[in-house]
Amino acid sequence: MPTVIRQATTADVEALISIMNEYIGDFYQKPKPPVEKLHHLITTLLDLQLGVQFVVEQNDQTVGFATLYFSFSSIKADKVTIMNDLYLQEHLRDTEVEVQLFKHCQTYTQDHGFAHMSWVAAPHNTRAHRFFDRMGCTRVDWVDYMIV
Asked: Where in the sequence is the signal peptide annotated (predicted)?
């Protein structure tokens, strides 16, 4: 079954809301945000000023997505991407499609002149840790904090 990975367009908003709700509610078991907030986030990213989203399609169905946010690194004194999301439906995890989606994000980062791409993975998401290790990624010694 052919897989297409491409930059999201306005035609993808409803499908992205659906797959993002699956990711948030089913995968991470977190409360789903109001549809209006997801819609606003997606349409904000479509302008390519704060970030970009990619969709993964098989048989005209959205089966995954990735989100890169644009930021800066003081250490590098340059712009960077932060891969906030890399999600595929379960049947596509640990497949070549996952590799393709990751590499798509990596290529976008390089082709658009960003210094590097970084991300975090939940401590309990050991499957993701194994994937990133296989991809030759480097674990770094930073600890994330947040105020809620």
From this structure: none
